[in-house]
């Protein structure tokens, strides 16, 4: 008798989002207090008048950060900020974090102190409390996982799923800078490895380096939107790249979109450095990750309220699902938007 071979499916066949969707099929929601489980920037839990949001992110040495150019203080700061970004993306205000660490014995106490100085700086900057965590040794390298909690009145929570046809698509700040910062750091690292005599040449590039090494979360935007009396219809933070994250809004909202190349905000320095790498700046803005800007949709009626606000760009509009998810080039060609966003599993 021929025995059935056990099946073996490579994770790379599913990709990060395919895997998450598959794992989500093992989750169940038994408690009526679970307002939102897997599938948004944070889970949402009913707390009476208020909702609590909770989100977690894991950073792994060699995958998400490289200690040859990432100072520990910045790493601590960034590990907190990337989680707060997900809390703001739900239109909530972060209040507490926990921090879990696994580290090999190659790290002395002093580096852990630096890491925690960075964590403390982020806590001070965003007004959140470090309330716990877990500590373990690891065989190789450093892993840091932060969980962030935040609150909002229940009716203020904004999901990825609320975008409606004709809504305007808005993004804060500028895009692609963190990706270009990373390219620069990687290039200088390679040059250094090949010839340790050569000192890294990073001068004049502070803005994009800072965007990579010390990103900020969308606190100012959330406070501004509240002040202007705007509740976005859908929102996500740009962590994987504009196209990938906009596609999440479209998929969850069951809508299409049209965004315009000429409207995508790219900083001057990002532009020039991208060109020096022979990269198309718009492609970097579409697909580069780790901007931690907020991408949101608003109803057209709210346009008047934001039109004079400098930190927000309207980059397109939501269409019906049948119209597809389109990127309109400067020469007015419509191209299907694809998620080449960076995949932290690769
Ligand atoms: P973000 O980029 O906003 O941090 P992710 O893409 O990491 O979001 O996650 C998307 C959703 O999948 C979130 O709801 C997250 O909680 C959930 N998720 C991610 N990994 C897992 C996992 N291993 N098990 C269960 N849920 C997960
Ligand atoms: Mg997110």
Show the helix and strand layout:
Blueprint: H1 11-24, E1 34-36, E2 43-47, E3 50-60, H2 72-88, E4 93-103, H3 109-126, E5 129-137, E6 142-153, E7 168-172, H4 177-194, H5 206-213, H6 219-227, E8 234-238, H7 242-253, E9 256-260, H8 268-276, H9 281-287, E10 293-298, H10 303-306, E11 312-319, E12 325-328, E13 334-336
Parallel strand pairs: 4-5, 9-12
Antiparallel strand pairs: 1-2, 2-3, 3-6, 4-6, 7-10, 7-11, 8-10, 9-11, 12-13
Residues 41, 86, 89, 236-237, 239 line the site of magnesium ion (MG).
Overview of this protein structure:
By secondary structure, the chain is of the alpha+beta class. It has helices spanning 11-24, 72-88, 109-126, 177-194, 206-213, 219-227, 242-253, 268-276, 281-287, 303-306, and strands spanning 34-36, 43-47, 50-60, 93-103, 129-137, 142-153, 168-172, 234-238, 256-260, 293-298, 312-319, 325-328, 334-336. The strands form two sheets. A seven-stranded mixed beta sheet has the order 8-10-7-11-9-12-13, sandwiched between helices. A six-stranded mixed beta sheet has the order 1-2-3-6-4-5, covered by helices on one side. A hairpin with a 5-residue loop joins β12 and β13 (334-336). α4 packs across α5. The structure holds adenosine-5'-diphosphate and magnesium ion. Residues 20, 23, 38-41, 57, 86, 239 line the site of adenosine-5'-diphosphate.
């Amino acid at each position: 008798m021929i025995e059935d071979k056990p099946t073996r499916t490579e994770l790379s066949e599913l990709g990060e989002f395919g895997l998450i969707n598959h794992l989500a099929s093992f989750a169940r929601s038994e408690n009526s207090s679970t307002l939102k489980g897997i599938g948004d920037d944070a889970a949402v839990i009913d707390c009476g008048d208020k909702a609590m949001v909770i989100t977690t992110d894991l950073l792994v040495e060699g995958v998400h950060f490289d200690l040859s150019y990432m100072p520990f203080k910045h790493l601590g700061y960034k590990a907190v900020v990337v989680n707060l970004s997900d809390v703001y993306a739900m239109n909530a205000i972060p209040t507490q974090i926990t921090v879990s660490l696994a580290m090999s014995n190659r790290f002395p106490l002093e580096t852990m102190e630096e890491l925690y100085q960075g964590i403390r700086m982020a806590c001070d900057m965003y007004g959140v409390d470090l309330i716990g965590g877990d500590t373990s040794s690891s065989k190789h390298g450093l892993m840091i996982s932060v969980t962030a909690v935040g609150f909002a009145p229940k009716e203020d929570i904004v999901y990825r799923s609320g975008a409606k046809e004709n809504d305007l698509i808005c993004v804060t700040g500028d895009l692609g800078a963190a990706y270009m910062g990373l390219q620069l750091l990687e290039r200088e690292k390679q040059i250094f490895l090949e010839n340790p005599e050569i000192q890294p040449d990073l001068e004049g590039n502070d803005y994009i380096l800072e965007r990579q090494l010390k990103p900020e979360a969308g606190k100012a935007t959330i406070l501004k939107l509240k002040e202007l009396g705007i509740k976005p219809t859908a929102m996500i933070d740009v962590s994987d790249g504009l196209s990938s994250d906009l596609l999440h809004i479209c998929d969850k909202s069951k809508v299409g979109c049209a965004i315009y190349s000429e409207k995508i905000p790219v900083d001057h320095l990002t532009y020039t450095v991208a060109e020096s790498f022979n990269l198309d700046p718009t492609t970097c803005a579409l697909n580069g990750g780790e901007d931690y800007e907020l991408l949101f949709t608003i109803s057209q009626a709210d346009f008047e309220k934001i039109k004079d606000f400098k930190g927000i760009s309207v980059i397109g509009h939501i269409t019906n699902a049948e119209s597809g998810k389109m990127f309109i080039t400067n020469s007015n060609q419509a191209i299907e938007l694809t998620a080449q966003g960076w995949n932290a599993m690769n």
